[in-house]
């Protein structure tokens, strides 16, 4: 193959004035191809404008959604469908994302994730910091299902674990929640990888590997950037007070 191309390269060298010019031309072509690939990747990312709010029932997603949009408190109830709205992350009206609050009920959450995951620029996974110790296995199970999803892995949207209800005295810290989730996800990974195959030969528990093989799981092993923040959609003064969402709002500015 190389021998067949050599006569053509020699012709190019003579016509272009020598090997140096040809080298420059090859370099320019390489730069152009790299630029086109970069533009393609950026174009795909810019087409994903949704920030998905995920979490178990009663984690506070819907109140958080309302607070981000209006700043006001309102009574909420368990959602059975999605809610979406444009959220301006700064005074610049052109900088915005679409917030989508998805139901947290076990029978609904995966079907709604399936519907919206391809549009996700980022994911906010809301955790009830007060009930966390009791719900840690359920939280980890849902988060595991999100993290091993093929579309999520491919697109690698930014992920924020929002540790909500920090206004309550018994709330667990973001650091403790991170440590417990890493431990539970590591256990799930081991359990799922050991699951028997189904009749068609596929594993019943989904992908066998989360993170790096041979190492205990931690969030730094994922293809997306994962951050933890503490927040309170209700606020320290209840209905009359302001929510504590500053860390979440700063993160939204970064990912918009």
Automatic annotation (TrEMBL):
GO molecular function, one term: GTP binding
Membrane topology, from the record: Single-pass membrane protein
Organismal lineage: Eukaryota, Metazoa, Chordata, Craniata, Vertebrata
Gene3D superfamilies tied to this protein: P-loop containing nucleotide triphosphate hydrolases (3.40.50.300)
Origin superkingdom: Eukaryota
Cell compartments where the protein resides: Endoplasmic reticulum membrane
InterPro entries hit by this protein: P-loop_NTPase, Small_GTPase_ARF, SRP_receptor_beta_su
Transmembrane segments: 20-38
Pfam families documented for this protein: SRPRB
Family, similarity comment: Belongs to the SRP receptor beta subunit family.
Keywords: Endoplasmic reticulum, GTP-binding, Membrane, Nucleotide-binding, Receptor, Transmembrane, Transmembrane helix
Protein name: Signal recognition particle receptor subunit beta
SUPFAM superfamilies, alphabetized: P-loop containing nucleoside triphosphate hydrolases
GO cellular component term, pick one: endoplasmic reticulum membrane
Coarse class of the protein's main subcellular location: endoplasmic reticulum
Metal-binding listed as a keyword: no
């Amino acid at each position: 193959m190389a021998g067949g191309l050599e006569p053509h390269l020699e012709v190019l060298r003579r016509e272009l004035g020598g090997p140096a010019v040809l080298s420059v031309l090859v370099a320019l072509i390489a730069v152009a191809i790299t630029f086109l690939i970069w533009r393609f990747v950026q174009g795909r990312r810019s087409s994903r404008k949704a920030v998905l709010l995920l979490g178990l029932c009663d984690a506070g997603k819907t109140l958080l959604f309302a607070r981000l949009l209006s700043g006001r408190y309102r009574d909420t109830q368990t959602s059975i469908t999605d809610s979406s709205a444009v959220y301006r992350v700064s005074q610049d009206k052109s900088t915005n994302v679409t917030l989508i609050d998805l139901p947290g009920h076990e029978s609904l959450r995966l079907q709604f994730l399936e519907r919206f995951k391809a549009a996700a620029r980022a994911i906010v996974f809301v955790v009830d910091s007060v009930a966390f110790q009791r719900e840690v296995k359920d939280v980890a199970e849902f988060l595991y299902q999100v993290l091993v999803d093929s579309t999520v892995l491919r697109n690698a949207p930014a992920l924020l674990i929002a540790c909500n209800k920090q206004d309550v005295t018994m709330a667990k810290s973001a650091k403790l929640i991170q440590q417990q989730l890493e431990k539970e996800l590591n256990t799930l990974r081991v359990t799922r990888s050991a699951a028997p195959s189904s009749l068609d030969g596929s594993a019943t528990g989904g992908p066998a590997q989360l993170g790096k093989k041979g190492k205990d799981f931690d969030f730094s092993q994922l293809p997306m950037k994962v951050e933890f923040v503490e927040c309170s959609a209700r606020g320290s003064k209840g209905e009359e007070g302001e929510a504590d969402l500053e860390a979440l709002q700063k993160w939204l500015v970064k990912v918009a």
